[in-house]
From TrEMBL:
<dbReference type="Pfam" id="PF02518">
    <property type="entry name" value="HATPase_c"/>
</dbReference>
<keyword id="KW-0067">ATP-binding</keyword>
<keyword id="KW-0472">Membrane</keyword>
<feature type="domain" description="Response regulatory">
    <location>
        <begin position="650"/>
        <end position="766"/>
    </location>
</feature>
<dbReference type="InterPro" id="IPR001789">
    <property type="entry name" value="Sig_transdc_resp-reg_receiver"/>
</dbReference>
<dbReference type="InterPro" id="IPR004358">
    <property type="entry name" value="Sig_transdc_His_kin-like_C"/>
</dbReference>
<keyword id="KW-0597">Phosphoprotein</keyword>
<feature type="domain" description="Histidine kinase">
    <location>
        <begin position="298"/>
        <end position="513"/>
    </location>
</feature>
<dbReference type="InterPro" id="IPR003661">
    <property type="entry name" value="HisK_dim/P_dom"/>
</dbReference>
<dbReference type="GO" id="GO:0016020">
    <property type="term" value="C:membrane"/>
</dbReference>
<keyword id="KW-0418">Kinase</keyword>
<keyword id="KW-0812">Transmembrane</keyword>
<keyword id="KW-0808">Transferase</keyword>
<dbReference type="GO" id="GO:0005524">
    <property type="term" value="F:ATP binding"/>
</dbReference>
<keyword id="KW-0547">Nucleotide-binding</keyword>
<dbReference type="Pfam" id="PF00512">
    <property type="entry name" value="HisKA"/>
</dbReference>
<feature type="transmembrane region" description="Helical">
    <location>
        <begin position="158"/>
        <end position="183"/>
    </location>
</feature>
Length: 770
């Protein structure tokens, strides 16, 4: 334990004490010196006065006697006093009787003494004799050098101060020694003992008390330190125990981890094995799915080709001369064939979904017309007491981007169901524009669907109840397909229904629009609608006519008819029209259900200007209004719904199968086309060198040269670059369409096709060319 002397407690203590003692001692010594000065100063005057008093009488007598000799002796005697440096006796005539003086003492301390006491002092006293104190005899004057006193005083003061210092010094030495033994030594001993302790190896041995310090502050300090050391020692012991336990635990943990790692590695390798097996199983499943798809494609080819022939032949036979019974039998056979085709199509579509092969087109199409066409086609299935209405939002863009074929499928599935399950009431299909899409709602007043069946019916081959197939037929595939189609188009299909009240299926699809809102035609005239208030017709007329600039007024079916006046009356109540005819000859536009047109006698009596079939398409209504109101381009004799039927086109049919040739040729002929026939691709190429055609229907699989190769060669000829080529194929899988496009064909028609499908394609491609 090495502490510098000046840093030691005893030194600091002693130093402080000595400083205080020194200051106090110096102050006291200075006070003592001051007092001594005052008394010394007073004693100078006192002693000289005493000297003058002693000398007064002899000096007075000398002055009285004017004895110069004695006067000389007296002043010499006075000069013997060490302080007196000059003495003089002067008589009353101011005559100096005696005068002596000597030089002042010289010393280097004199300056100090002169500073304190002054250099010299002058004393004089008047001389008189005691019996005549009032008579002045002369003067005794003394000059005193203060140094005689000052030197004594300085010596004493010096001594006083020196002894003061010596006392302080001695005191400090004594204190230093005392403090050292009392404080520093026991403390340094204690500190040494403490610092020699190794806290890392705790011991419960106590630090010893310094001798004779058991009960004082140092003893208490030792006690407290011992207590702290004991608690530190026990804490360290506890910590060591805890660390020991922790180390043991870590070791156990390590063992557990390594055991677990081994287990995991084993599980991992098992998992890898099972992954490999799963991978293998997946590959097998995919292979099987592919095989199934291929099988389906082949099967569909195999089934479609004869079906195509069957349906085509039946349809041709139905157009020929037949008696009623034969016609009915053939119609049933034709209808059953159509059901078979639809079933086949549905199964094929489902399998495409499952194989992930369904591809959606994105082309511009007119959704409103598509809905109206589909509704018009399906209206033949509607019961006579069901009113089918298309309510098209006038804001709906003219052209939307999407897959028209799949859209038609959705609409016709929902609409066919609504018509199938509704015996009486209304079926409405509403199309409205939504933000970035469309909403199609099919609402019917049919049998509705029980709550427990509402989710089930969206699964393949599921129907609402067991009696459904027997009563209504069907396979249970339509809704499953529709839902998947909606999801594939990123839309959704929802259902609201109450058993016995009706159902509403709602499809919401994001369809980007290709064009803006269409311009509405503008007509002039006053129109009255006569129909039941809750009829689809009144809703449709109220929706359309005011937007076309017409003033429209609705009359309920049982309102009185007298006094009504308008440019045209539109009605679907022929029974009220007889009454009306008696009252006025207002032009009448009659709307009837499909196949429920007026007999010729009724036409004669009612004389309607127009008779239109339900569902009313916007185009048909507009044309009829233009004709009856005498506005716009249309002529009264025009058949608006059949504008394209008279197709005067030359079509080259390239097909090897004679049955298919016959079917396609028959349909084309009925559609007004002139047909050229080639049995394979090579023959078609030869014919095209000499003959000009407007369109080619090209089978894909043919002997000699197949349809793909033939198309490629046709496209190589620049003058035939624009010629529409439509593929005819029975292979319904998705890559087939791609193959056809890659070869240069424009469109695709799956066999067996219906006449209206062929007609739609002809209309599309022939109008595109013209
Ligand atoms: P399918 O009509 O061929 O039976 P769907 O998948 O189209 O097959 O329909 C499944 C079932 O859903 C139908 O069998 C019928 O029970 C019920 N369903 C569908 N649409 C309607 C509807 N508009 N009204 C009442 N029931 C319906």
């Amino acid at each position: 334990m090495d502490i510098a002397l000046t840093q030691r407690l005893s030194f600091k203590q002693a130093g402080l004490t000595v400083l205080v003692a020194f200051i106090l001692g110096t102050a006291l010594s200075l006070i003592q010196v001051g007092i001594d000065y005052a008394s010394e100063d007073a004693s100078i005057n006192r002693e000289i006065r005493a000297l003058m008093e002693i000398s007064h009488n002899p000096a007075a007598r000398i002055a009285y006697n004017i004895d110069a000799e004695l006067a000389q002796e007296l002043v010499l005697g006075l000069l013997r006093s060490p302080a007196v440096i000059s003495a003089q006796i002067i008589d009353n005539n101011q005559l100096t009787l005696a005068s002596v003086s000597r030089p002042a003492m010289q010393s280097r301390y004199r300056v100090l003494s002169d500073f304190i006491f002054g250099q010299r002092r002058h004393f004089e006293t008047a001389l008189f004799v005691s019996h005549s104190p009032n008579e002045a005899l002369g003067l005794l004057s003394l000059e005193v050098d203060t140094f005689a006193f000052g030197s004594h005083f300085l010596r004493r003061s010096l001594l006083t101060l020196l002894t003061g210092f010596a006392r302080s010094l001695l005191l400090s030495l004594i204190l230093l020694v005392l403090f050292y033994f009392m404080l520093t030594k026991p403390l340094t001993g204690f500190i040494r003992a403490l610092s020699e302790r190794d806290l890392r190896s705790p011991s419960h041995a106590k630090l010893p008390y310094p001798p004779n310090h058991e009960r004082d502050e140092i003893g208490v300090l030792v006690d407290v330190t011992n207590r702290q050391l004991a608690s530190i020692a026990s804490e360290i012991e506890q910590r060591q125990h805890a660390e020991d336990r922790l180390t043991r635990y870590l070791a156990e943990l390590e063992d557990m981890v390594s055991a677990r790692t081994e287990q995991l590695e084993a599980a991992n390798s098992r998992l890898l094995d099972s992954n490999r097996e799963l991978e293998q199983a997946k590959r097998t499943a995919l292979d099987m799915a592919q095989a199934r798809s291929a099988f389906l494609a082949n099967m569909s080819h195999e089934i479609r080709t004869p079906l195509n022939g069957l349906l085509g032949m039946l349809s041709l036979s139905l157009d020929g001369p037949l008696n009623n019974e034969q016609r009915q039998q053939l119609s049933i056979a034709h209808d059953s064939g159509k059901v078979l085709v639809e079933l086949l199509n549905d199964i094929l579509d489902l399998s495409k979904f499952e194989a992930g092969q369904l591809e959606l087109e994105k082309i511009p199409f007119d959704l409103a017309s598509l809905v109206e066409d589909t509704a018009s086609l399906l209206s033949q299935n509607a019961a006579s007491d069901v009113e089918l209405t298309c309510l098209i939002d006038p804001q709906l863009p003219h052209q939307l981007l999407g897959d028209p074929t799949r859209f038609r499928q959705i609409v016709s599935n929902l609409l066919a169901n609504a018509l199938k399950f509704t015996r009486v009431g209304r079926v409405d299909i509403t199309v409205s524009a939504q933000h970035e899409g469309v909403k199609i709602t099919v609402r019917d007043t049919g049998i509705g669907i029980a709550e427990d069946a509402q989710t089930r019916i969206f699964h393949p081959f599921a129907q609402a109840g067991i009696g459904i197939t027997r009563q209504f037929g069907g396979t249970g595939l339509g809704l499953a397909l529709t839902r998947r189609l909606c999801e594939a188009m990123h839309g959704q299909l929802s259902l609201e229904t109450r058993e016995g009240v009706g159902s509403t299926f709602c499809v919401e699809l994001p369809l980007p629009s290709q064009t803006g809102t269409p311009l509405q035609p503008q007509l002039r005239g006053r129109i009255i609608g006569l129909s039941p208030a809750d009829s689809g017709l009144s809703a449709q007329l109220a929706n359309l006519l005011p937007r076309w600039g017409l003033s429209y007024h609705h009359l309920d079916a049982d309102s009185p008819l007298s006094g009504i006046d308008a440019d045209l009356l539109i009605s679907d109540c022929p029974q009220r029209l007889h009454e009306l005819r008696q009252l006025s000859n207002l032009p009448i536009l009659l709307v009837s259900a499909y196949g429920d047109f007026l007999s010729s006698e009724q036409v004669d009596t009612l004389a309607p200007v127009e008779q239109l079939a339900r569902p009313l398409s916007r185009q048909a209504l507009l044309q009829a209004l233009r004709r009856t109101l005498g506005q716009g381009e249309a002529h009264a004799t025009e058949q608006p719904s059949e504008p394209a039927r008279n197709r005067q086109a030359r079509v080259l049919l390239v097909e090897d199968n004679p049955v298919n040739q016959l079917v396609a040729k028959g349909m084309l002929g009925k559609l007004g086309c002139e047909v050229l026939l080639a049995n394979h691709g090579q023959e078609a190429l030869t014919m095209l060198e000499t003959q000009a055609v407007d369109l080619i229907l090209m089978d894909c699989n043919m002997p000699v040269m197949d349809g793909y190769e033939a198309t490629r060669r046709i496209r190589q000829r620049s003058e035939l670059n624009e010629l529409p080529i439509i593929a005819l194929t029975a292979n319904a899988l998705s890559d087939e369409r791609e193959r056809c496009r890659a070869a240069g064909m424009d469109d695709y028609l799956a066999k067996p096709f219906r006449k209206d499908e062929l007609a739609a394609l002809l209309d599309q491609w022939l109008s595109a060319v013209n």
